[in-house]
Predict the structure.
Amino acid sequence: MAPEGAPDISVSGLTKRYGDVVAVDAIDLDIARGEFFTMLGPSGSGKTTTLRMIAGFEIPDEGTIELAGEDVSRLPPYDRPVNTVFQDYALFPHMTVQQNVEYGLMVRKVKRGERRQRAGEALEMVQLSAHGDRKPSQLSGGQRQRVALARAIVNRPKVLLLDEPLGALDLKLRQEMQIELKSIQREVGITFVYVTHDQEEALTMSDRLAVFNQGRIEQVGPPAHVYEHPESEFIAGFVGVSNVIERDGRRYTVRPEKINILMNGREPQAGAHVELGLVRDVQYVGPVTRYHVTLDRGGELQVLAQNLEEGSSEVLEAKGRRVSLEWRPEQESIIDELEGGSE
Ligand code: ADP
Ligand code: MG
């Protein structure tokens, strides 16, 4: 379900082994021009290895990589129309910010005047115009990451590869940079391939994402689709909380915020799926409360409820109470139809 237009990156049967470890296991992937595409997955699932093969730093054992319709599988990194931004920035400490950004252009023998101008534009884009004369050591972590970004986009690559670029930043700065990165990507229109193990980061930034598990891609799609309709138990648990139950020969998941918790004998709505249970635990999280409910018919579900009127003392009292849970059947996402089900 790739968006329209010829793919910018087309990966087919891509495989990489290290001894007995299959780091990347025959993956297929089409990424559209201008897309913000994220590879999401736990540590060791093969994201970095895939990215490094696209960049040309690793040679695949099997499979092909096409960039803009051209097979680049055997080309060295510098002959590919891609640039990579790493987590550790890799800036030259003895050069100024401006010189760092100009460096790639200098190597490619771009004339001084044009170098100046393009580096200036790139620095403006990452809001560092005022800091061109500083050394990297005189910048904050977030600013250094922006220099690294400016240094990559100044080369006008067709594709920018980013491997956990915000991993070293603290949460607040990371969230600011997420918004900024996304808006820079829109502005420059470069295809971004972004690696992260952080599901929230993947959900907020991406046009589409691919979820990696043990060297394979388990699901690809727009964030909301992957989140609302996980196709496997792994996806359900990695992109959200797993909330999987088994009823009438079907295993399915319901997202915690789609479940309504009914207390004090409140009646469920017509047509809703209803389960009875016992509140095993309650966590007050400020804007929301998380309930862990053990179901009479087996299994356990998490419920997320907004704290519209309730205060912390009221919600915490729910522990140990009997409740009904309800949700609309269309909120159920099937993971498995089991053999011998009653349907
Ligand atoms: P991720 O980026 O998703 O954390 P990686 O692509 O780095 O995963 O690693 C995938 C698997 O390949 C892991 O099991 C890792 O240990 C292994 N691996 C990666 N690079 C090498 C290497 N250079 N030598 C040996 N094993 C490697
Ligand atoms: Mg990695």
User: Anything to note?
Assistant: The chain has two domains: 9-234, 245-337. The chain has nine helices and 18 strands. The mean pLDDT is 91.
